[in-house]
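Ops channel
N.P.: pipeline sanity check, posting one input/output pair.
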């Protein structure tokens, strides 16, 4: 009898041993969180799994789990993926591509702001490399047998043993194609398949918890698979350490661009930091349309990229008033031949601003990181009389014509350049009256009466060697940013000579600084703040620090003198037009803002306090002024409308209405 019982026991053990437990995992990347919830609960309940079969992103999670990674460790790896900022498409050559500009600078030069987000995105290449590296440093199948299959394959249905399927597709989910719904119908009819899935369509933010609950609802069916003696993934304290050095190899890159491409790899960076910084630099440069990374050994990273000359033409519109249409056209040509070359020409014409800007850049020439640039411009700036109605006639700027050139180098965030400008400025104080005379010979008397006013332009030449340090996040905008920062500090020596009168002012120092930051409190609410200062001064022989001399006597031509003062950044109105009420040789201001926004549209409330460092006799106000600027913005991919009202309080109320529109 004992012999028969022993044989029966052996037969039972043999039958049980042949019956394996197979776990199937499939799905796209967002479903990883759900599968990790399932795996976490399987680990906690100590359910024995003999084989893992995976497809797509389920194969990634299943491969790591079968190699000894715990669900927690896989989750930490997924959460640590900090890919490059996303963009919709890589930039391609565009013919007559629309762009929208917000406003003009004080000299009439347009400030360009493109609505379309068409910057290149290499985050997917970085993401794929992280996946490849994780799998390469894992001994797949060392703990549990693993098999990867095609998502459309049906081979796993014929597998013998106890089968478990992890899927985030809900029982009552009727979405998807007819083929997908038919597949779900077949799965539901398979009584030998245990399906771990939610009852209702899960919330994307709670996929992990949904996966845990899916296992708990099938706990009774999984009870027989409980195996406290099994070696589960949770026993592994740490995943295998990285062993890749990522030594870059550019053998497959054409000789014309190899030197330029190599310059973006920082030899001081190591491991994944080097790869990330390399791709970020390429994405910021915007010279390459495609980048491929292949990890062929434990040390070498094969890098290949494609770049071709690009010619882009665009039509643009800029504005800030309701007094006329402003248009601009831009031509940009970029190519690479060991170094990068960028030629850009913009011509603009409209109400208050006309001119041409030329920008030539020679990139990656110094230690593979420097940029040499030449900028030239020809412009005509004519302020609209509406914006000068509160200014005394002698202080008004009537028209300004000029040209200039700037030469310099950029290295990282530092720019060193010299700017030379020649301006012909006509102001309200530069006019003289022409009189006519009537002489009565009989009565022997003469009558003098004015018949016309002639304005004589004053020619002014300036030279300004300067250094500028700028650190700014890509998405930062003073009033409209939901997140980001900006820090800028510039300084140099400026010399000004007035050819018309054969005089010049002593050399003086000009320095300016700005700091701004915006931070989101929630998805729809953000706060911002910042400060700004400027200081023009010169040093006398006795060592005393004084303000620069007046260009031609402030009581003779205050508009001319104001052109070489700072334009204080007191909102849209004050930034666009330089007028005596916001021009100062030394000033300081602080501002703060609150925004309620949704997808770029919203309400923006900004205000602050500004203080002059010297009196301005042509505008009666206190040195300290409060300013505020509420704004309403409606923005889509093809339309951007901004309505704002700028208010200044300086002992008396002055209110200016500013309407901005872009189409």
């Amino acid at each position: 009898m004992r012999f028969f019982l022993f044989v029966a026991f052996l037969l039972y053990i043999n039958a049980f041993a042949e019956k394996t437990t197979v776990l199937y995992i499939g799905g796209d990347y967002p479903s990883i969180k759900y599968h990790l919830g399932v795996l976490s609960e399987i680990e906690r309940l100590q359910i024995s799994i003999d084989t893992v079969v995976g497809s797509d992103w389920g194969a990634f999670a299943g491969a790591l789990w079968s190699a000894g990674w715990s669900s927690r460790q896989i989750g930490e790896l997924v959460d640590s993926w900090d890919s490059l900022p996303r963009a919709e498409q890589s930039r391609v050559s565009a013919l007559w591509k629309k762009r929208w500009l917000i406003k003009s600078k004080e000299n009439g030069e347009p400030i360009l702001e493109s609505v379309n987000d068409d910057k290149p995105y290499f985050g997917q290449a970085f993401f794929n490399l992280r996946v490849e590296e994780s799998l390469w440093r894992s001994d797949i199948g060392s703990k549990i047998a693993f098999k990867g299959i095609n998502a459309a394959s049906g081979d796993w249905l014929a597998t013998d043993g106890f089968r478990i399927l992890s899927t985030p597709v809900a029982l009552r989910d009727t979405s998807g194609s007819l083929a997908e719904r038919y597949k779900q119908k077949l799965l539901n009819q398979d009584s030998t398949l245990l399906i771990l899935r939610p009852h209702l369509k899960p919330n994307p933010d709670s996929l992990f918890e949904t996966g845990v609950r899916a296992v708990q609802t099938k706990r009774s069916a999984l009870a027989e698979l409980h195996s406290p003696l099994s070696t589960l993934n949770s026993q592994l304290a740490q995943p295998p350490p990285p062993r890749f050095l990522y030594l870059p190899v550019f053998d497959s890159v054409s000789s014309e661009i190899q030197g330029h491409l190599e310059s973006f790899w920082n030899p001081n960076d190591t491991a994944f930091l080097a790869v990330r910084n390399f791709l970020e630099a390429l994405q910021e440069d915007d010279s390459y349309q495609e980048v491929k990374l292949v990890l062929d050994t434990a040390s070498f990273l094969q890098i290949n990229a494609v770049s071709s000359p690009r010619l882009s033409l665009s039509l643009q519109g800029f504005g800030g008033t309701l007094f006329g249409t402003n248009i601009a056209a831009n031509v940009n040509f970029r190519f690479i031949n060991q170094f990068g070359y960028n030629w850009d020409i913009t011509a603009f014409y409209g109400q208050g601003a006309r001119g041409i800007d030329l920008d030539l850049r020679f990139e990656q020439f110094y230690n593979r990181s420097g940029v040499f640039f030449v900028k030239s411009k020809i412009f005509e700036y004519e302020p609209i009389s509406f914006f000068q109605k509160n200014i005394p006639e002698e202080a008004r700027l009537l028209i300004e014509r000029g040209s200039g050139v700037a030469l310099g180098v950029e290295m990282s965030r530092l720019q060193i350049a010299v700017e030379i400008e020649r301006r012909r400025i006509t102001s309200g104080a530069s006019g003289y009256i022409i009189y006519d005379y009537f002489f009565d010979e009989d009565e022997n008397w003469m009558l003098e009466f004015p018949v016309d006013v002639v304005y004589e332009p004053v020619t002014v030449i300036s030279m300004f060697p300067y250094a500028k340090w700028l650190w700014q996040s890509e998405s930062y905008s003073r009033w409209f940013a939901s997140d980001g920062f900006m820090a800028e500090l510039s300084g140099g020596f400026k010399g000004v000579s007035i050819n018309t009168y054969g005089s010049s002012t002593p050399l003086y120092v000009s320095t300016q600084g700005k700091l701004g930051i915006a931070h989101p409190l929630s998805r729809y609410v953000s706060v911002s703040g910042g400060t700004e200062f400027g200081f023009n001064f010169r040093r006398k022989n006795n060592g005393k620090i004084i303000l620069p001399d007046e260009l031609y006597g402030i009581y003779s031509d205050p508009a001319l003198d104001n052109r070489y003062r700072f334009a204080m950044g007191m909102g849209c109105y004050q930034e666009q037009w330089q007028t005596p009420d916001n021009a100062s040789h030394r000033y300081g201001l602080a501002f703060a803002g609150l925004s309620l926004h949704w997808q770029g549209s919203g309400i923006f409330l900004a205000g602050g306090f500004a203080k002059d460092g010297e009196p301005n006799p042509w505008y009666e106000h206190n040195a300290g002024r409060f300013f505020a600027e509420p704004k309403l913005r409606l923005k889509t991919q093809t339309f951007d409308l901004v309505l704002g009202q700028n208010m200044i309080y300086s002992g008396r109320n002055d209110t200016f209405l500013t309407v901005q529109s872009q189409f």
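N.P.: looks fine end to end. DSSP finds twelve helices and 31 strands in the chain.
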